[in-house]
Write a structure and sequence with these properties.
heterodimer, A: about 325 residues, mainly alpha, ABC transporter involved in vitamin B12 uptake, BtuC, 14 helices, B: about 525 residues, 2 domains, 18 helices, 22 strands, membrane (chain A), transmembrane helix (chain A), transmembrane transporter activity (chain A), cell membrane (chain A), transmembrane (chain A)
């Protein structure tokens, strides 16, 4: 395998990993606060649709992003209402959100654009374009580091960089701030937070809202950030679930989430390059099998390679004070 | 001299949970600088009352005065502001946080953690020195013992500048030595002018440490005493509403042939830790062997091995026959060989909470002829049988169609005890027979155990309540760290000697000390 192929592969790894990473961090905030979120998938999907639809309608990717985030936040609010205020089953609420998103996006898209449940193609003015980082061309001749910087690190949309920045930021918020301390506490033992005189519900809503925000960005990236150019039905394709798998793999830690998502992203990147297998192993791998690779990996990792992953102890349980 | 203003005064507090009236028109005055005991049976409403005072629940009616001023306590934050700190029976700690993080949770000094932690570290050091409350600030809660966890709870309250400290059943999880240390700390706090409310159901603790005591029964405050002017029988009578026999009335045992012979029993748990390290003992017919020890020293494992649900090595013989200790023994085989088992945790092991009482009374004995034949169950017979047993064992209400979860802890336990004792066993394994059970029911259950012994049954009693072990057992073995530290005739030992063994002081040393 030549150098250029490796660089291209890493480049697309970073791109495919970043929506996973955003969704994974969304799940991390939510689950660290004790709210399981199966609905990452649905929130991303709704945001992907709204972002593409509004970017097309207004001609502004940023407006699309905002509306996408708003849509994801709305679903977060529904999830919060069901699981925090009404103490319902968090898994069921999440699954309901996913079904709702899968159906609604297609129905509304069809009604709106009449293109078989997809949005029209976005032109480059109404989507996030790839940014060339400063000095990318200057450094390129430098051996090894130059091409890595110019090819892999540079040349992504702003949303990819946002996803990468979200990792240290999440770590800092969770482990260095008062809000983070309380948020982690509420996922472990909400009664401790309650008796300390802090509102359990408010903290959990905050966590669920952060999850909505991050899912919103992830969804917008799927449909409006280059090379994507519009929404197609079910375009999240299970990424919400893979993000949850990555979250468990990362044992609910932000930096580990980065590595886990890069791994999953790498396999998704491989999916698009069956030629690599031909060249490396002289093996024609059916594309269907390649597409299945990230999902197969998910199963294998969850089954055997996670080790002892201890989820937040109060995860999934509504907090009930009165008996 | 006129009475000083009470630190806490409650006037007409009422609180209902649905149809259950947990607190009825309660009034209470707690004087500053005193240790005030609140005693009552389980479900008498003590914890509810204190949770109201701490703002965890809101009273339906009534008034709270702190230092003479009417104070609204809508939430815990308000209670903390009013100078009230609470140590709950079930600690409210985040187990994978450090001591320091738990202490600052909710009272951080600003949005960033670093300065808050630094400040708390310094302050904790000062508090530790002042009150004998040493704890490593960087220790993770789940790595330290319950005694230390309790100290963290007290430190949390003091860090929040509490002047009034409420402790809910603080000694339930402690060894006698740890309890003594706790009482030293409480006296220290009292000497510094703090007011302390101690909730307990243990008469001994009330007599030992409090200045005054208030008694609750069925949601009402029924009596107030100066501790120096009352006695355990008087308090017990006030708690239960009738005269109670505090001592177990029993004749000396007349041990018969050995029923259970245990030799070199060893258990290694899933993490590879040895939980039983060579347990050997003999138990005879017509004898109660009490296993004393602080929770978690292998008693539960011993019961599980004998009950057939845990794998062990070594040998166990029941009436001379080898018993299957592979962990795969069928419960039915155990019962048919004459072993009855009242498990430590009645709610998860002893009962199916959603099933009706009559189903629970038959649980595990469905195959016996009295309940039907072949695949057919004689439901009418089962229900009649349950009604009969519930009446004889004084289960209240004696309604066989009520779900098990609807009974109080004491009555749930009576259902389990009725089922197991009535199976006419040769060997009864009984774990924590009176945990969460009120005094009236304790008296009844103890009587049943003794009368079963007198009918020739061998009884293995595991309890963390030393008083219970002492009053019920004929012989006592003390477990520590998976071993039996020593064995004593119940008539020839006392709490002090057993306490040393429970703390792991070797037999010879304890013998010398005694």
């Amino acid at each position: 395998m030549d150098w250029t192929t490796i660089l291209l592969l890493l480049d697309s790894t970073l791109r495919t990993a970043s929506p996973l990473l955003l969704a994974c961090l969304a799940g991390l905030f939510s689950e660290r606060a004790g709210i399981f979120d199966i609905g990452l998938e649905g929130k991303m999907l709704v945001s992907a649709f709204l972002a593409a639809g509004f970017a097309y309608a207004t001609g502004s990717a940023w407006l699309g992003l905002l509306v996408g985030i708003a849509g994801a936040l709305l679903l977060s609010a529904v999830h919060g209402l069901a699981s925090i205020t009404f103490r319902g089953n968090q898994l069921i609420s999440g699954v309901a959100i996913n079904f709702l998103a899968a159906g609604l996006t297609v129905v509304i898209a069809e009604r709106w654009f009449r293109q078989g449940g997809r949005t029209p193609q976005l032109d480059s003015g109404s989507r996030f374009t790839e940014i060339t980082l400063p000095l990318a061309e200057t450094i390129r001749p430098v051996p090894v580091l130059g091409p890595i910087y110019a090819q892999v690190v540079s040349g992504h949309t702003i949303l990819v960089y946002a996803a990468l920045l979200a990792v240290p930021l999440s770590w800092w918020v969770l482990f260095r701030t008062r809000f983070g301390l309380r948020l982690r506490a509420v996922g472990e033992n909400p009664a401790a937070v309650d008796t300390a005189g802090v509102s359990v519900a408010r903290l959990r809503y905050a966590a669920v809202a952060i999850a909505g925000l991050l899912c919103g960005i992830a969804g917008a990236q799927l449909s409006t950030a280059e090379p994507a150019a519009g929404f197609v039905r079910d375009m999240t394709a299970g990424r919400g679930y893979i993000a949850l798998a990555a979250l468990i793999f990362a044992k609910w830690r932000p930096w580990a989430a980065l590595w886990a998502c890069l791994l999953f992203g790498f396999f998704q990147a491989l999916e698009a390059r069956p030629d690599i297998f031909v060249r490396l192993f002289d093996l024609r791998v059916p594309s269907a099998l390649l597409s299945a690779l990230p999902y197969v990996l998910t199963v294998i990792i969850l089954a055997g390679f996670v080790g002892r992953a201890i989820p937040p102890r109060a995860g999934g349980q509504p907090y009930v004070k009165e008996r | 001299m006129p009475d000083p203003v009470p630190a806490i005064e409650l006037r007409g507090i009422s609180k209902a949970f649905g149809p259950v009236q947990a607190n009825k028109d309660i009034s209470l005055r707690v004087m500053p600088g005193t240790i005030h005991g609140i005693i009552g049976e389980n479900g008498a409403g003590k914890s509810t009352l204190m949770s109201i005072l701490y703002g965890f629940y809101r009273a339906d009616r009534g008034e709270i005065l702190i230092n003479g001023r009417p104070t609204a306590i809508p939430d815990s934050q308000a209670a903390i502001r009013a100078g009230i700190g609470m140590v709950f029976q079930h600690f409210k700690l985040v187990e994978n946080f450090t001591v320091l993080e738990n202490v600052i949770l909710g009272v951080e000094d600003g949005p960033l953690l670093r300065p808050s932690l630094a400040k708390a570290r310094a302050e904790l050091k000062a508090l530790a020195e002042e009150y004998e409350l040493e704890v490593d600030p960087d220790a993770i809660i789940e790595d330290i013992g319950v005694g230390l966890q309790q100290r963290v709870e007290i430190l949390k309250a003091l860090y929040r500048k509490a002047d009034i400290l409420i402790l809910d059943e603080p000694t339930g999880v402690l060894t006698p030595a740890e309890a003594d240390h706790l009482f030293r700390i409480l006296r220290n706090l009292q000497a510094q002018g703090k007011t302390i409310i101690l909730i307990t159901h243990k008469l001994r603790e009330i007599m030992e440490i409090t200045d005054r005591v208030s008694v609750m029964r069925r949601g009402e405050m029924v009596a107030h005493f100066r501790t120096a002017e009352t006695s355990p029988p008087e308090l017990a009578e006030a708690m239960v509403g009738r005269k109670v026999l505090l001592e177990v009335d029993k004749t000396p045992a007349r041990p018969g042939a050995p029923v259970l012979e245990v030799e070199n029993l060893r258990v290694v748990d899933a993490k590879g830790v040895e939980r039983l390290r060579g347990i050997s003992f003999r138990l005879h017919a017509g004898e109660i062997l009490g296993i004393a020890g602080v929770a978690g020293n292998g008693q539960s494992e011993l019961l599980e091995v004998l009950g057939g649900t845990m794998k062990a090595t070594g040998s166990v013989r029941l009436k001379g026959q080898a018993l299957d200790i592979s962990g795969n023994a069928l419960g039915r085989a155990r019962r048919d060989s004459g072993i009855a088992h009242v498990p430590e945790d009645r709610q998860t092991r002893g009962l199916i909470l959603d099933f009706a009482a009559w189903e629970n009374v038959a649980l595990g004995y469905h195959h016996r002829p009295a309940y039907g034949s072949g695949t057919r169950l004689d439901l009418a017979a089962m229900q009649a049988d349950a009604r009969d047993k519930m009446q004889r064992f004084d289960v209240r209400p004696p309604d066989p169609f009520l779900a098990a979860k609807s009974f109080s802890g004491g009555n749930q336990q009576k259902i389990v005890v009725a089922r197991e004792i009535e199976s006419a066993p040769d060997l009864l394994l009984i774990g924590q027979p009176t945990r969460g059970v009120d005094i009236g029911a304790i008296e009844f259950i103890h009587k049943q155990i003794v009368s079963l012994r007198d009918r020739g049954c061998a009884i293995l009693l595991v309890s963390v309540e030393l008083d219970e072990i002492l009053s019920l057992s004929d012989r006592i073995a003390v477990m520590f760290d998976g071993r039996i530290m020593g064995e004593r005739e119940a008539a020839r030992t006392d709490a002090r000697e057993l306490g040393l063994l429970m703390a792991g002081v070797a037999d010879t040393a304890a013998g010398r000390a005694a």
